[in-house]
Design brief:
The protein has helices at residues 16-30, 35-39, 42-56, 93-104, 118-126, 154-158, 161-169, and strands at residues 6-10, 58-64, 67-75, 78-84, 109-114, 130-136, 144-150. The chain is an alpha+beta fold and 172 residues long. 27% of the residues are buried.
Length: 172
């Protein structure tokens, strides 16, 4: 049996180019319906990442064999960004990051996503997030969005999150 080196760890400065690349590729693929994403350059994405995301969020990266393939940016219990490289979509990275976020904020999580991102919405709903408000994202996107909340139920409170994280770290 081959061991696959999968981890989620804190962002380090040297991760920036890889994280910006993941964000840009994933955004271009997932948000083709948004004019802003059709024209966003990699350089502009890098500037936004440095000036907005890094400045305001705690960031973790998902790595496969030491290569960044995903990232999670949080402000307290709010998932500000969660992106997976398109080459790794449907390989369990979204689930890994959600379980990790739940371990960081076991009393609840909040997030917004665009109404048009059906795959992301299915993922959140699969993991117990509930849509609580439908609205419009702030400019410059100004697109239909949905606010999700996750609160643990009695069953979730009894779940051993350490065991889940251990399993994810092993690549399970």
């Amino acid at each position: 049996m081959t061991h696959v080196n999968v981890s989620i760890r804190l962002f380090q400065d040297h991760d920036e180019p890889a994280v910006v690349g993941v964000w840009h590729r994933s955004g271009q693929a997932a948000y083709a319906f948004l004019p802003l994403w059709r024209t966003l350059t990699l350089d502009c994405a890098g500037t936004i990442f440095r000036e907005v995301i890094r400045a305001q969020c705690n960031i973790w990266v998902g790595t496969l064999e030491q290569q960044v393939v995903a990232y999670l940016a949080m402000k307290g219990s709010y998932i500000d960004r969660m992106f997976v490289d398109p080459s790794r979509w449907r390989k369990g990275w979204g689930t890994r990051l959600i379980i990790f976020a739940k371990s960081l904020s076991p009393n609840g999580l909040e997030l917004h996503t665009h109404q048009g991102t059906r795959a992301a919405r299915r993922l959140y709903e699969k993991h117990g997030f509930k849509a609580v408000h439908f609205g419009t994202s702030p400019p410059p996107e100004s697109a239909p969005d949905v606010e999700y909340h996750w609160k643990p139920d009695d069953k979730a409170l009894q779940t051993d999150r350490a065991s889940q994280l251990s399993q994810l770290q092993r690549g399970g």
